[in-house]
Amino acid sequence: MAYPSMGEAHRRITDYLNNFSDAVSDQDVASLAQLFSFSSNSPSLLSLADALNFFQDANRLIKQSDKFSQFGEILAPLFRLLQSYRLGNLVDAYHAFEKFANAFIQEFRNWESSWALQALYVIAYEIRVLAERADRELASNGKSPEKLKGAGSFLMKVFGVLAGKGPKRVGALYVTCQLFKIYFKLGTVHLCRSVIRSIETARIFDFEEFPRRDKVTYMYYTGRLEVFNENFPAADHKLSYALTHCNPLREANIRMILKYLIPVKLSLGILPNAWLLEKYNLLEYSNVVQALKRGDLRLLRHALQEHEDRFLRSGVYLVLEKLELQVYQRLVKKIYIIQKQKDPSKAHQLKLEVIVKALKWLEMDMDLDEVECIMTILIYKNLVKGYFAHKSKVVVLSKQDPFPKLNGKPVNS
Amino acid sequence: MMNQATNTQTLASLDPNSVESRYVVNASQGQTSSYVPSTAGSEAASWNMYRVDNHSVENGSFSNSTYHHVQQTEPSTRTVQDGSNAASLATSSSLGTTNAQPDYSGYNSYSNSTDPYSYGSTGYQGYYNGYQQQPNPSYSQPVGAYQNTGAPYQPLSSFPNTGSYAGPASYSSTYYNPGDYQTAGGYPSSGYSHQTTTWNEGNYSNYTTHQYSNYTPDTTGAYASGNAATNSLHYQQHYKQWSDYYNPTEVSCAPGTENLSIASKSTQVSQVPGVSGGYATSNSQAPPSFTPSWRPEPSSSQTPSLQPGATVTGGYDSYWKHGASSFQNQHPTPVQQHFQKALDSKPSYDNFQEQQKTACPQGLNLQYPVAQQSSQSYQPPLQTVQSVDTRRVSKVQIQTNPRIASNLPLGLPKMDKDGSNNNTTAKPAYISVSLTKPIEKVLPNDAADSVLKVGMFPKSLKNYVERALGQCEDEKQMAACQAVMKEIITKATNDGTLHTRDWDAEPLFPIPNADMVDKNSNLQNPIPVSAIPKYKSPTKRSKSRWEPLPEEKLLDKLDPVNSYAAKYSSWVHVNEKDRKPAGASSEGKTDIMNSIRFPLMEQKSASKTVQRPVKRQRLADGNAADNGDASSDSDKEQNLTAYYSGAIALANTPEERKRRENRSKRFEKVQGNRAQINHFKAKNAGSGNLYARRASAMVLSKNFEDGGSRAVEDIDWDALTVKGTCQEIEKRYLRLTSAPDPSTVRPEEVLEKALLTVQNSQKNYLYKCDQLKSIRQDLTVQRIRNQLTVKVYETHARLSLEVGDLPEYNQQCQSQLKILYGEGIEGCHMEFSAYHLLCVIMHSNNNRDLLSSMSRLSDEAKKDKAVQHALAVRAAVTSGNYVMFFRLYKMAPNLNTCLMGSLCRENAI
Fold it and tell me: Residue ranges of the PCI domain (chain A) (predicted)?
């Protein structure tokens, strides 16, 4: 690495300081945000970091002029951050960043207008990313990773700063989304609840007033939460909102949304087109969809087993498993249709033995008792209309709409 | 020797503290030349070191063989002192050069810490050599004494002890780092250092004048020699003179007002310990040097360091050096020594052999007061504490200086402690020669001295002492026995029969009247108190310092001994202030911190080092490494806290521990304020001394970036782990409300039997639950985490499942087993993951838990019969296949049935 000359280093640092104070005095948030987004690895910041590492006494430069020294609390840790970051010492960098961010928040609080929101966004983003990386560094050293947690509490503080009546409140949703990301990563999703409550119930917030990208992100995460709660209609609503409002060109984002939306829709009895799965590379669902279409219990189980890890990690495994009842319904319906073709008069009397046979053909070894149990549940869940004749082991189907469609309603539970 | 030398060299090279090294050089005859340079280079600091050495030498002389050596090669002895290190040296000496080497290494680390001081590395080598050779013999004797006193030291080492700790720490530090001394001062109580600072500030002028005058009269001759020596090769001669001085000096010291008081104290002390004449002399010397020297010293430091050095006397070479470089340090050091002696003698005597807890507390108290008293000369008090613990001889140590020095740029903490009590092993280990701020280091030296003393006793003697103490029934008797024993030992030492007598065959003396002991103790107490008044003036000073009153030292008021806490607090304040005044505030603080740590470390190390020199070496190495690592202040702080905790851990009794903890908390607060304090010295010195265990703990603590407190806890647990002795198989469970008593805790073998009896017992669940809980408690208390632990928890888990005691299962067994399995301890992991799955299913509203526990199952687990069963149960439940569920219920392995039964009830299936 070619070290800059002393003069060059000095010049770069002063340039940076000038840019900073100019951006603050001009309220030029774009350039200010650029000065903070160190993880973008922009060449100007990299060279600045080199200069700082070479020119060790940058604090002296800050103190030199009132213009800079009034921001000394912000700039000194920022420089340290850049130095540590450049040297790959992420934990130190995180510590410096937290100091810097706190100082910046302090300053931000004093600014009446919301001009610096963009810069705050950058900080909220950077602290999360940096904390994740610092945690990885800590974990690789065998220490307990706790920086992300720290970043979480810092962002809560930022949320408190933004959650007011002023113009800054529109920034609250961005911070909330960053918090969601942290909580989901940490597996502490219960912490989301307080933020959601204040977003959805506080009068100062008008959801439509927030920036669209934040709304989409927010809907995505709250939709996921609803999936965990198995509240499928709400999840459908939120995820659909996210899907319809997100940037259609961002396929990765769409895919992320669909990953949860498809199981939700399946639970509601709505099957996706094959091309959708192909387009967004969600083929792990295709067999599930096939199983639902065909009533192929074996295929469903195989699909679940095949992608068990993936489904477990994304948290949709249990949702997909519950599709089993729909598969049973489909299977019974198929048997019903075949019987109808043979003998329409007796089609609504379904012998359990036939179902057992069908299952056997699917290599599902179930005996009469089990099938009886399943049929009872199908009737109970309103997937099948009819009644059960226990003595004769026959299911008597309703003559009207024996297999009601879900049509967007969840299975009774 | 070579190794040591090399180490020192390396250290020296590493550290800028050429001064220390130079000191070393000085100690050796050849060193003289180096001396001059050193004085010039590192100034006072290096000088101090030398003086310390000298002191140690004196101590060594006490020990007899060493003594002669010392006289002959006083420089060498002095070097020993340097080593408060000396402590390490002493051990090494007993062991042989190898030990000395380790010590040296420790020193080296110190030197590193003192690097800022920039000592001459070359000088170090010379030093080391000299030290090892001559000092070693003397040390060995002291070592024995140390061992005895070691225990007391430890107690002392506790925060209150910190002073003593500091002493040990100061030893090492003294050698190399003046800075350490300062830190030591901080330990005993930052107050110490504060005092020193005050000394430096306002009192200096006064001190210099008084002390100087006193000194010159007292040890004029010696002084002169000292002066000459400082620069010239005369060192040896000087040393001799010094040795002479010591005796004379003490006497001379008496003349000084402060000295007088001190002397009185010292005399008392001497009586108690039955210390040889040398002791008394040392005491007397110390007093004079202390009082006068202290105050004067500061001034002297300003002026010519040489004069103070002279005052200090033999030990004093180092002092001289210090004086040359920083006279202040030297002077203070002598003062400290006096203090220490007085204190030491009393407490140490009491506690001597046994280092009884009671004695220790007293000693601590005394020390504290002393420290407070000496507040002016912070170092002295600290030293006293240390000395009290281990140095009964406590000839004269000049620790105060270091602190003072710390206040000023130059800290000359020289702690010369004479192990007079034990064997007349006077160990002026303290060399508060800190270059600029390390005065506090002196304290550590003291501790080291104590160690040395312990080491000096033959094993048979130790056995004898144990036997004698074994017949005691209560503490009073113990104290009385100790007093008697001290007399016997000192007598033997004086006769030269200490090592020749057959202690094993020696008849035990009748148990002395406890009342006598009490009287003694009372006497001792008063003495300290009296000393305190004088000393108190310093404390007052410290207070005044708060209000910027530099000259308050002059005001010698009798502060109530009771107000220790207040004093301490004041000390702390003073320290803070001192730091501020100190030019390099941050550095100074760091130094203080280090020194503080050092003391702790040293105490511990001292006690243990005597016994296991080898470990010391290792530790020392580790220290060196630590030094390299210690870069950030925060790390240092953590270390300090760790040290504290370690010190606390040393405490023998729960009460003591508590007390110490309280104190330590106080200190920690102070520390918090002094965030800047460096760990360097502490690490260096301390690490050398610490046990391997502790060392590892330290490493851990270092690793924790923010968790100073956490690190502390770790160490605590390590050090406090109880080893049970109870042989009862059955034991009722009782929730602990205090620290566990080993006599009621069952060791592992017994617990195994207990588990078997529970398993085979026909009694009801409540009985078994109670028994298992008590077993678990004993396991936890002893930190046993192995297959037995797993077995106990599994047994309990199964029992609770059988009876459907799900809360017990969930909250206690399941969570613990999860952790234990996570640590890789073998057990019926699969069985219990199946139980866990079933439990999660039971609380079926928590899908996320189910998901996460399912995703955590390994492939191997999925093949396990029990787990498969649990998974099948889950599938049956989610799909509503209750036929399948009950089939699974029928064929459930293990205790899955029980859980499924609960499941049925819960879900109203």
Answer: 216-402
